[in-house]
Amino acid sequence: MAATTVKDTNFNMRMNKQKKVSLEDLYGSLGMTLAEAVNIFFEKSLMEGGIPFDVRMPRYNKETEEAIQEARDIMSGKVSAKSYSSAKELFAELDEE
Q1: Cα dihedral angle (15, 21, 24, 28), rounded to 10 degrees?
Q2: What single string gives the DSSP state of each residue in the chain?
């Protein structure tokens, strides 16, 4: 399938504003616009005959999955996390264990 340079249609999508800004900054640092980066992704997809990278759920061991869930619970406020007023206080408690 030959690539064409004629751009005769539009593709629109919605996304989180901060994510868009972050992506524009990232791709800008690489010398391209967000639209150019998306076009590169599409061209590579056509060349590969699908998504040009692995798309799969990560597999973690039970301990890692529990740690991820604990972090999510802390972030959502379901679980309170212990805090320390200084690194010295944290290390003192760790030394006690």
Answers
A1: -170
A2: ----------------HHHHHHHHHHHHHTT--HHHHHHHHHHHHHHHTS-SS--------HHHHHHHHHHHHHHHTSS-----SSHHHHHHHHHH-
Signed CA dihedral, 23, 25, 27, 28: sign only: positive
pTM over 0.70: no
pLDDT one-digit tens code per residue, 68-90: 999 999 999 998 888 899 999 99
C-alpha–C-alpha distance, residues 35 and 42, integer Å: 11
Q: Which amino acid appears at position 29 of this protein?
A: S
CB 79 within 8 Å of CB 73: yes
